[in-house]
Amino acid sequence: MLSKIPIDLGRIKQEDLDKEILRAAIIGELDAINLYEEFANMTDNEDLKAVLQDIAEEEKTHVGEFQTMLLRIDKEQAVELEKGKKEVEELTGKK
To answer: Alpha-carbon distance 32 to 34, whole Å?
Structure first.
């Protein structure tokens, strides 16, 4: 992971604190997804594989929850996310 978590909250402006918390939470969930999926791919135990994949899927839901909250409070992020989506659609010709 390239980011520093926990972040130094003393250096964050109060009006940006919730956005930073949400971004850190998203990073943590993405790390967890990668870890559980990697473990699932490593094991030959089918029961363990199923549990790890299920937990990874739950973490993906958490990413969606945190992202939804972030987009509610960071309007610039919402605009840029939409721009990125349109750029990919233009580049790939797919929606």
So the answer is: 5
The tokens for 17 are 């604190």
**pLDDT (tens place) for every residue of the chain, 95 residues total:** 556 666 676 788 888 899 999 998 999 999 999 999 999 999 999 999 999 999 999 999 999 999 999 999 999 999 999 999 999 999 999 98
**20's tokens:** 């930073």
Residues near 3 by beta carbon (within 8 Å), at least 6 away in sequence:
24, 27
pTM of the model: 0.85
How many Å apart are CA 10 and CA 67, to the nearest integer? Answer: 23
Instruction: Pull the structure tokens for residue 18.
Output: 């919730």
Residue 20: CA count within 13 A, CB half-sphere: 15
Measure the CA–CA gap between 86 and 43, rounded to whole angstroms.
Answer: 39
- Name residue, tokens 């990874």: 56
